[in-house]
Amino acid sequence: EQAIQARQAASPERAASPPGFVDAAGPHNFQTRTEREILGDPLDVGRAHELLGLIATGVGQFTEALTHLYRALAIFEQHDLVIEMAKVCSNLGAVHAIKSENALAYTYIHRSLELAERMSNLPIIALTTGNLGEMAARAGDLLKAEEWFRRSLAISERTNEREHLCWCNIALAIALQDQGNLQGAAEGISRALAIARAMKSARNIGGALIALADLRVTQAVIAAKLQGNTRITHHSASACTRFLLRARSTIQRAIV
Predict the structure, then answer these.
(1) What percentage of the chain carries pLDDT values higher than 70?
(2) 61, 65, 129, 234 - which has most CB atoms within 10 Å?
């Protein structure tokens, strides 16, 4: 949901280079036209590679993405550009996570967090702690995920990063829902909806509504289970139907 946040230099795989780029056989000979034009400005060269990596990620060319992101990291490390190193490490972690290479993803996201904390860069700290929460949630460690998400939200509230606040509230709500804390989940979704509406962001509103619909389906399932375990069958059946109808209405609003 968020914007995209690894080394296979020895791998023979790599997508064909985009038009206008020269791809020599050896890694030290790889040089783009842009790089030749701005040679001497490592920040711009590194950012160009990072951007190419993000573009490749966006079209599913993950091997090429990693090639560019690792080259960007090498340039930033050579010139001790710490903030840029933190950003590209976060992106490397995200690409590895997409590829389900979780050990590498953790390594680079944690490194990004360490670098960002060294420079007291709150936006990157918020982003990386949120990503660590997402990784913990995928691994099934819901308590750790909640801890990371709450830390990320606390930082984002200080910087007023509304896009991240919206995403992280939904992520926290899902973790709470999976723990059985439906009230906490509802509160998180409500916060996300309020932020998204204030932003007038259809994409974020849609994401919050989908999370709300999923919560209502969960509530319907619980009501159905109660129906089978209680004598008050009519009330439980009515509650189940009501939640399902509300879920359907919410989804319809999300896709309009």
Answers:
(1) 80
(2) 65
Spatial distance between the Cα atoms of 152 and 167, rounded to a whole number of angstroms: 11
Q: Give exposure, 156-166, as e/b (b: 16+ Cβ within 10 Å).
A: beeeebebbbb
- Give the type of residue at 232: I
pLDDT digits (tens, 9 = 90+) for 188-210: 999 999 999 999 999 999 999 99
Alpha-helix runs per DSSP H in the chain: 33-37, 42-58, 62-78, 82-98, 102-118, 122-138, 142-159, 162-179, 182-199, 202-229, 233-255
Compute φ and ψ for 22, nearest 5 degrees. Answer: -105, 125
Token pair for 80: 């001790």
Q: What is the largest CA-CA distance in the chain?
A: 78
* Closest by Cα among 62, 63, 88 to 74: 88
For residue 253, pLDDT over 70 is answered with yes
Question: Where do we find the tokens 């670098």?
Answer: 115
Say if residues 40 and 75 touch (Cβ distance below 8 Å). Answer: no
What's residue 226's pLDDT? 77
Q: What number of other Cβ atoms are within 10 A of residue 48's Cβ?
A: 20
d(CA 237, CA 55): 50
Q: Which residue, 144, 143, 106, is CA-closest to 128? A: 106
- What distance in Å separates the CA atoms of residue 87 and residue 92, rounded to the nearest whole number? 9
